[in-house]
Write a structure and sequence with these properties.
The chain is of the alpha/beta class. Helices cover 41% and strands 15% of the residues. The chain is built from 14 helices and 13 strands. Strand 4, helix 4 and strand 5 form a beta-alpha-beta unit.
Length: 406
């Protein structure tokens, strides 16, 4: 069992890095001896740097499995890639193609906007899709074929706000400001944050939204400062976060910022080096260098083998993790149902009960009514050199109290 677990983890890490702009990025010949896997990933547009790293993780994982195993019943993996940053009509056309004529039994989606718009194609084709955006709105009805790989926005909000409660000093409740892009994922932090605050000794003093790409967020920072916000919960791209940090510095407003790992994209790490300081904290449901579990060992093996990335990056981890979930679902469909297609893979996913990925991600449970994967994460601090320091253990903020590391 330990050998199978380690093999599964290694499989997940190895397929991340190789990248091409073509629709089919995999070099292998596609035949009935391959299992086609779809990936709709932003390779162009504002999310391209993050999307490309996520794709590298997926590709490395599947390359590794193809090179070191016989696949599933002798069938190797063929990753079929669509640029999610392209014109939506082209994206939809290509999705329909690999769902129907190419018969890809499972896909991954990187873009939140595309995920919502193309969900109908997957529903009609009865093909499950693993969605990298962790916005719970994506799981709105109909549910049957939409899956999150590691929790939801609600998880991140609850975890961050509970952590703030634990570290807050003084007799008064912590005062929190919310800053978000005015898009689907940005707004997704509003309701769960308000819900959590209403049930705990905490005050949301202001909620500010902005159009992505805004060059000056000083008015929002001034409002937070005037309202006495001691902590900022932020949901936006890394480059917008850099703008927020610069705006805060201009008014001498030095408070900690909290977000999900999505904040830490390449733009953020490259342009925010002098701004990150000790104020950048993330909710991160994954393995990190320094962990002792097999998950991070797998990531290191893939990094060493394929040289796709030189240092650990959350987007690369994300690609590896999504690939691991898809591979496990395909394997389970073959083992339990004797057939690999959209319907059987969907049923296989719903058999996941505390599915163990060796610490690569928290254990996953899916049912026919809940596709949120898990409600477990940890808080980590981001350093200016792009490293991550765990501040807590993993925990479920609905059922447990956070343990803060010394």
């Amino acid at each position: 069992m330990r050998r199978l677990l380690l093999s599964s983890i290694l499989f997940a890490v190895a397929g991340i890095f190789s990248l091409s702009a073509a629709v089919d990025l995999h070099a292998e010949k596609v035949s009935d001896k391959t299992i086609k896997i779809g990936a709709i990933v932003d390779l162009t547009g504002p999310n391209a740097t993050q999307g490309q790293l996520t794709l590298k993780g997926m590709e490395d994982y599947f390359h590794y499995m193809n090179e070191t195993t016989s696949g599933i019943s002798g069938r190797k993996f063929s990753l079929r890639v669509i640029d999610g940053g392209a014109k939506l009509s082209d994206v939809l056309k290509n999705v329909e193609k690999f769902c129907n004529s190419e018969k890809a039994p499972i896909s991954a989606i990187y873009s939140a906007a595309n995920s919502e718009k193309i969900k109908a194609v997957f529903l009609k084709s009865r093909v499950p899709h693993i969605d990298a955006p962790n916005c719970q709105e994506i799981l709105g009805p109909p549910v049957p074929y939409t899956y999150l790989p590691f929790g939801s926005t609600t998880l991140n909000c609850y975890a961050i706000l509970q952590y703030i409660e634990m570290i807050h000093a003084g007799p008064d409740p912590p005062r929190v400001g919310i800053l978000s892009a005015n898009d689907v994922c940005g707004k997704s932090i509003h309701a769960p944050s308000r819900t959590y605050a209403s049930k705990h000794r905490m005050e949301i003093v202001a909620v500010e939204q902005f159009t992505p790409g805004t060059h000056d967020l000083e008015p929002a920072m001034l409002k937070f400062k005037d309202m006495g916000a001691e902590y900022i919960l932020i949901q936006c791209t890394g480059i917008d976060a850099v703008t927020a940090f610069k705006s805060a510095d201009r008014i001498h407003y030095n408070v900690p910022f909290f977000s999900t790992w999505k904040l830490v994209d390449t733009d953020f790490l490259n342009r925010g080096k002098t701004l990150i300081r000790r104020r950048t904290n993330i909710s991160f449901p994954g393995c990190l260098p320094g962990d002792s579990k097999p998950g991070i060992s797998l990531v290191k093996i893939l990094m060493d083998r394929y040289k796709s990335v030189s240092t650990f990056h959350p987007a690369y981890w994300e690609g590896v993790s999504i690939a691991a979930v898809m591979a496990r679902a395909l394997q389970r469909a073959h083992e339990k149902l004797g057939k690999i297609d959209g319907e059987t893979v969907n049923l296989a996913l719903e058999t996941f009960q505390n599915e163990d990925f060796g610490g690569l991600i928290p254990e996953i449970t899916y049912t026919n009514t809940n596709h949120r994967a898990s409600f477990v994460t940890r808080i980590a601090r981001v350093s200016k050199n792009g490293t991550f320091m765990p501040l807590t253990n993993f925990w479920n903020p609905k059922t447990e109290k956070v343990t803060i590391l010394p």
